[in-house]
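Much of our argument rests on the idea that a fold can be written as discrete symbols. Part of our work consisted of pairing the sequence of a single chain with a tokenised description of its backbone. No coordinates are needed to read the tokens, only the vocabulary itself. The record that follows shows the chain in one-letter code together with its fold in token form.
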Amino acid sequence: MLTFPKNFLWGAATSAHQVEGNNSCCDWWRWEQCEGHKPSGAACRHYEFYEQDFDLAKELGHNAHRLSVEWARIEQEKGKFSQCDLQHYIDVVIALKERGIEPIVTLHHFTNPAWLSGFGGWANKRAVEYFLRYAEFVVRALAPHVRYWVTVNEPTIYMSHAFLFGVWPPEKKSFFKAKTVENNLAVAHIKTYRMIHKTYDKMKLPAPRVSIAQNMMAFVPCTSSRKDKFAASLRDRLYNFGLIDKLTRAKTLDFIGVNYYSRQLVHLKKWGVGNIIWDTCQAGHQPLPKNSLGWDIYPAGLGDILLKLKKYGIPVMITENGICTTEDEERWEYISEHLKNIHMAISKGVPVLGYLYWSLMDNFEWDKGFVPRFGLIDVDYKTFKRAVRESARKFADVCRTGILK
């Protein structure tokens, strides 16, 4: 029996575009209309049904919920801000507070207003000032109801998938643009962090807690060879901790948001810059169970990452962790094994604030469409009926008691 700290945050996460539906003014929506791409359509109709969904979260013992505000709804046209859509998000966070659920609000979760694309998106440094202007509009309104903020979700993933690999809009494949985007996102976070703290100070509100949500992966050497160990260590430093180092030096992280899902088994074919950065094992060594997207299930990796984060002396929050599977018993096993590793890290002095499962409900999984099932709650995409899964009920026992049996 494992007991977690009092006041631990327990809950789940969503993002606006993946659950709300009909987000027609964003770059992703426009991209989805192209041949061969999967449309999000009505998604889960969470924009309409959020109170019903939060009732289920409360029923499941959640005391925290991570959500995102959709920039493309707030600023559908450049410089024109929607008070109506802003009021919707005010109502959303109030609905959470009324149910005793702490809102954790993300300002950028992959999507952008379509008009921003015409300016080159995040490859244009002016995106920083546009984002800051939007963020200030939202923060001033939500500040009385929100303590926790995530400025940018997975900046490394957004940069790589949209501007390096070219599999997400705007489908660019440029190392130079990717590095520019990464830098602009870092600057946007730093400026937004300072703006949020200044806003709370002016409004005489208790100090906020502001972070990013950084995707982190366990990089494991396939063999004990020098090249595999070196490559795994380098990827760990660059991918997992490079941005964290930069933002901690700027003193702009009140906690460290960690999104963790899987490992990468590192095996170099030869010495070479490309090999050191990209090569993985293709021979089926060190086999592990996988989720329905083929990602290795490796709970120990989360424990290892948390122990490495201890050196920063900053609280940590698991802002995403989850599995897509059609076998619900695998979901509970995934959750419980990751919670064991979190508890281990806590017992060794890592200050973990909370655990947010991805996701509260099945949703639109970006370029993968609606097939992957990550949710604690099943969604029938024809009727939009919700059904609580058994894994969610088992997790609810932990949320209510703070005890993992």
